[in-house]
Amino acid sequence: MTAPHDIDLPTAGSTPAAAPNPSDTALAALRAEIDVLDDRLHELVMRRADVVARLAASGIKAGRQASPLRPGREAMILRRLLRRHAGPLPPGALVQLWREILAGSSAMQGGFSVAVYARGPEQARLAREHFGSQTPLRSHETAARALAAVANGEAQVAVLPLPEEAEAPEAAWWTGLDSPRLQVVARLPFWAPGGENVPEALAVTQGAADPSGADRTLLRLELADDRGRAQLAAALTAAGLPPRLLQLRRDGGVVRALAEVDGVVAADDPRLGSLPARALPLGGYAVPERGE
Ligand SMILES: O=C(O)C(=O)C[C@]1(C(=O)O)C=C[C@@H](O)C=C1
């Protein structure tokens, strides 16, 4: 026998429980699916961080370079992921997710901060997006000050504007870059939608970049005589270093050129010896990815 209070009888005037709305049920089911996937993703992100911690603790990288940053390796990771990427998530969102992960990985390996000299808010934003939302970023009044912060170990990376031919002598930071101590190691942004004129910047650290498999080098050329751009381009091409870009400056009596060439060119590369100029590699970067 059931006790009377166990029987669920509708009482006069009460309304029956509302049937669940089918769209609410569907929403709850999809959100439950998302929760399961978020847990899995989180698990993997934590496992990845454990591997980076093991890498850092092993000391394998110790002493090789002042900064934990390996832009070439990061470029290889991002290129591989972009190649396998499919589905509706925009590639820019994929890259930004990994930029946060990679920045967090660098921070885990010791102090990691960035000195920024930006000509405008867009370049400052590039630094923030590339080095993640959590990385300490400090703005400097001049490129020289941002470089000094890296040279004295206050920061691990300087983010500086891409050189422009017509800029003032004090803005042309590359003319005095203390290479090979300080070198260009990355070009920002690594990924951007194609077909747009994107603002860009260069990153400088102590020591050289690690090659990524598709790289470019910046060469500083100091010319003994004032030869023209076409002549210099021809000499570079004849040496096996056809320039993708060539900026020429005449500051006081000194003629300097900045050339961007394909591949990784070291200071002892024999091709540099045949040039009609003193040539010094200023570092280089992984060729940035520009979307369709
Ligand atoms: O491969 C390394 O050297 C790492 O430190 C790991 C890692 C990563 O998280 O994948 C982190 C930072 C570097 O800039 C590159 C890669």
UniProtKB/TrEMBL annotation:
SUPFAM superfamilies: Chorismate mutase II
Disordered as annotated region, ranges: 1-22
Domain of life: Bacteria
SMART domains: CM_2
Record InterPro entries: Chorismate_II_sf, CM_dom_sf, CM_II_prokaryot
EC annotation from Swiss-Prot or TrEMBL: 5.4.99.5
PROSITE patterns, A to Z: CHORISMATE_MUT_2 (PS51168)
Residue span, Chorismate mutase domain: 21-113
Primary enzyme class: isomerase
An example Gene Ontology biological process: chorismate metabolic process
Molecular function as annotated in GO: chorismate mutase activity
Gene3D superfamilies attached to this UniProt entry: Chorismate mutase
Name of the protein in its database record: chorismate mutase
Lineage: Bacteria, Pseudomonadati, Pseudomonadota, Alphaproteobacteria, Acetobacterales
